[in-house]
């Protein structure tokens, strides 16, 4: 199993980069799986009647978020392991900003289940992230609407990613998402995981 964890603050362009990865790997006839941690958590959270939508999850008490993280990690590892050859990518956050503080997205008990080879940090300038957030009317991200908060969150994400990587012997790679050409970031991610 080759698993790359693709992280980044909301609005940095993870979904766009992952969609580009999907297009590239499909054209090259390489088996792949792209998973979204939030989708796995949301499915459980809705089933347990904790939330009605994804953006409400960041506001849940930390103990409930931890419970959802653990259940998601087990299901993600199961799905990634079912892909005997090829590449698996997990779209998630290295940290989640909550009212109770920064919650590690990949704490010890989670990263040890996932066992990634690489943790990718997709980054852009805070002002560019704000611009992307404003253009995306499908999400509510007012808790990331300040450039200083974006910068602080990216700093915490770097620290969290390295801390998680140490626990499983993974590498950490910072990827700049260049405006207008997500194929640059996508190609760097693919090459690093192969």
From TrEMBL:
Annotated localization: Cytoplasm
Catalytic activity: AMP + ATP = 2 ADP
SUPFAM superfamilies from the UniProt entry: P-loop containing nucleoside triphosphate hydrolases (SSF52540)
Record GO terms (molecular function): AMP kinase activity; ATP binding
Keywords assigned: ATP-binding, Cytoplasm, Kinase, Nucleotide-binding, Transferase
Domain of life of the native organism: Archaea
Membership in a protein family: Belongs to the archaeal adenylate kinase family.
Name of protein: Adenylate kinase
Organism for this UniProt entry: Metallosphaera cuprina (strain Ar-4)
Organism ancestry: Archaea, Thermoproteota, Thermoprotei, Sulfolobales, Sulfolobaceae
Gene from which this protein is expressed: adkA
